[in-house]
Each structure stands twice: as structure tokens, then as C-alpha cells.
Design a protein that fits this description.
Layout lengths: L16 E4 L2 E4 L18 E3 L2 E3 L16 H14 L23
Antiparallel strand pairs: 1-2, 3-4
Length: 105
Amino acid sequence: MNPMCSKCERVVYPVEKLNCLDKFWHKSCFTCEVCQMALNMRNYKGFNKRPYCNAHYPSATFTVVADTPENLRLKAQSEKQSTVTLPSFTRPTCSSRPGVSESHC
């Protein structure tokens, strides 16, 4: 039995079949979800098993990280490390270095 097209839901015969994104498509139905531009195996980008052209490919969104005990511990440790102050070092003055002229300081 021939598979059904993922877009038009009609039968896809072998001569017009395109197998992509774990689905079957008519070659004419394999178009961008947004602008309906005809796509092929070389110029499509898949997202959530749907085809997109390069211009309409959804941009990645940031996900929220759950406040698990491990993440909370790491966050606290990071904050603690960022508040640590390093001792300040002062450069010795030339007068405290015998035998060194002022021009070398």
C-alpha cells in the first residue's frame, strides 16, 4: 500500500514520492510551512518534523533551567566565588630597593 502525503493527505505514488523528516510527501507538497516556497532535499531545513526554507527557519529559543538542588548549589557556589576579593599587591617603591636607580622603577 502506498503511503499518504503529510501535507495534502492523499496517496503518494513511488514516482512522486519524497521521503523526508520521517514522513512522505509529494514533491509538489514539500514546501516551506510559512511562505510555501518549493523545497528539495538540498535546500530545506527541518524543525519539529516540518520543512522550512532558510529564511523562515525558526530561531532557537532559550529554555528555562529548572531550579534543581544541584543547580541551586552551583549557582550559590558561583556567586560565592564571584564575591571573593583577592589581596591587593603594592609595587615596592624605588626607595625601598637599595641599588636601583629611579629610572629603572
